[in-house]
Amino acid sequence: MRYNTRMTKEQAKEIYADLGYLSQPFPYASAPFLESYARLLGLSPTPARTARILEIGSSYGGNLISQALFYPQATFTGIEIAPTQVSVGKTYIDQLGITNLELLEADVNESHEHLGTYDYIIAHGFYSWVDEETKDNFLRLCKEHLAENGILYMSYNTYPGWHKMDSIRALLKFANKDIDTLNHREKVRHGKTVASKLGALMLEYDTVKAQQGPFLQSLRQTLQKQDCYVGHDHLEPVNTPVYFHQCMDHMVEHGFTYLCDCDLNLSFPAVYDETLRTKLQDLAPHDPLAREQYIDFMLNTAFRKSLFTHKGATPKRITETSVTDTGFQHSLEQFLFTLRIPSEHLESIFEDLAKGMSISENLVNQAPISDKATSNSARNAAGSHSLCDIPKSPKTDITNIHDAQGASETDIRPNSVHSDTANPLTIKELVQLFQQEGPHFYVKNNTIVTYTGEHKIPDMCLPLFYQFLVEHIIQGGISLSVLEAEHPFKHHIFEEKKSYIPERYIPFVEIMPQEGVNAYIYPGNRYNDPISDFNEEDLEFMKLLSKPTTKHDVMCKIYEAMTEESINPLALQQSNKYTMILAFYEEMIHRMEYFGFLEVEETQFS
């Protein structure tokens, strides 16, 4: 039910002034994410680190601020119709010292000649929240200002899933039907109160509770959300969800080609589900977009995050044959992968894959003969690694790796190890590799490369490994980013005497958690994941890493800060506070690695 299909500029300004908006980063609405997905589909987008990015409906700039900080060579522009949000956002951008981000008060329905050409255009939460005329004007703007090889990101509410929310929206609108004295925020709270009372009444009747289970679940989810979300989704004059196929038709009219959804499960689930592949192929043998619409009907999809480029592009769809295609496998070498699957689940995942692919039981459970016959010293002399080198218990201590690097001039780095000397891995060793060496890796010449070195995958295991890799990229268990060839792990692994934290991040951690700022804007890490727990300890630890240093120097400074007494590394190791300080150091290093604050001193890599 729609009570209005048009929202004026004045209404929009009034609503945003009353209600505000929590402006936060979204990983899938960031240029590095979009670049990675475009490259995965065989396109050649502009590198995100030097790109020109435009966000439409940028609010306070929360989705752009972190990106601008992490990618100082890129340029960012945000346009927003609400002047108060532009003004507040500019204030914080100035305080943070960010010079490559500009927020502009603008309306897509008005002239946009002042805008330039952009490699990435981002519109999160815009398309289905505006009327039809504004939708067309928005797409004309995107068509005119998107670079030739540019990528457009657009999120929108979708049917059939949003049908369950239409009733909630109608209820909240009806609760405020005859009330003209409340502002928008007050209407949200009044609507929530009425809806809560109605929900409680429904729960008193077992028959109603049983019959209206889905409605009550949607109502409960809505009442738990923040006022700004409820106000914009349920009480704004316009919220027009669409079916996927309707959106695709509209995009074709405006000259765009669909790439995929950011949730790859909506676009390519047939890669790992043979039954689904066969049945959908019967329903729509020559139309992959129709197959995606059927998936939406199956899953009751309520929200999509779609990527587009200009008409004429020829993206490569990921299919079941991609897994064994050497060209596609080679294209995966341009990415750094991050494993997000809990390590305790890996063994069962690989075992299930092996059973499905009829992999030899010997290959699953035993080490290769060549590994058994090769001594550890011979492997080390060759500068290569297999998991036979890593103690099975306890787990490898990452701080010991740091110690080894500080003590030796022959640090083992991926670019110093040659794949032809790496020993092959069995499946069990593959599991142990991911469990013990951390989540980050890349692939080169059918070899897994981690921070400590290269790990050759035997030919018999290659189908299983690529099936695992592609399947979990699609399912979201493995994320990807474009590989920085010279220093692949520099943002993710602290290296003694090389890693440091640039000064530009200090104001970021000082200002963003402040009361008042965090009511408007959430900070993000290098991948634009929101961060809610910056604290004083982070700030003080970052200052200790302002220049390349060593683990023991940092630990000594932590000791001195705690006790106001100086100490040398040898005395610290003998101190009863050593274990506590080591645990704190490890925790803080992992936080800095997660935030992505680490850089390397380039002179150390001459």
Textual characterization of the structure:
- With 606 residues, this protein is an alpha/beta fold.
- The chain is 44% helix and 13% strand.
- It has 26 helices and 15 strands.
- The strands form three sheets. Strands 1, 2, 3, 4, 5, 6, 7 and 8 form an eight-stranded mixed beta sheet that branches. It has a five-stranded antiparallel beta sheet with strand order 12-11-10-9-13. It has a two-stranded antiparallel ribbon with strand order 14-15.
- Strand 10 (440-444) and strand 11 (447-450) form a beta hairpin.
- Helix 6 packs across helix 7.
- The longest helix has 20 residues, at 184-203.
- The termini are far apart.
- The model is unreliable at 366-422 (pLDDT under 50).
Helix content: 40-55%
Compute the CA-based radius of gyration.
27 Å
Query: What coarse outline follows from CA principal-axis ratios?
Result: globular
The N- and C-terminal alpha carbons lie at a distance of: 65 Å
Spans of at least 5 consecutive residues with low confidence: 366-422
The major beta sheet can be summarized as: 8 strands, mixed
Content-based structural category:
alpha/beta
The total count of helices amounts to: 26
> What is the strand content?
5-15%
Number of strands: 15
Mean pLDDT: 86
Task: Offer a few descriptive terms.
8-stranded mixed beta sheet; 606 residues; alpha/beta; globular; 5-stranded antiparallel beta sheet
